[in-house]
Design brief:
By secondary structure, the protein is mainly alpha-helical. It has three helices and two strands; from the N terminus they run E-E-H-H-H. It has a two-stranded antiparallel sheet. Strand 1 and strand 2 form a beta hairpin. Residues 2-52 form the BFD-like [2Fe-2S]-binding domain.
Length: 67
């Protein structure tokens, strides 16, 4: 699903920025930077935060690597 229409980012793109092996974003703003773009209108920020919460990112921290 498209999460950010300004930058055409999908939920998969957002998750890849959070993945311990692929990305290191620890905040919604860092997701854009990790993906090589910048926040524009900001409407996506709530959805990005929700994806981060669902992925186990709490209080702005990236998920721990689980073996």
């Amino acid at each position: 699903m498209i999460v950010c229409s300004c930058n055409v980012l999908t939920d998969h793109d957002v998750r890849s920025a959070l993945h311990p092996d692929g990305g290191k974003a620890s905040s919604a703003g860092e997701v854009h930077r990790c993906l090589g773009c910048s926040r524009k209108c900001g409407r996506c920020m709530h959805t990005i935060r929700k994806i981060m919460t669902d992925a186990g990112c709490a209080a702005g921290h990236a998920p721990a690597h689980v073996s």
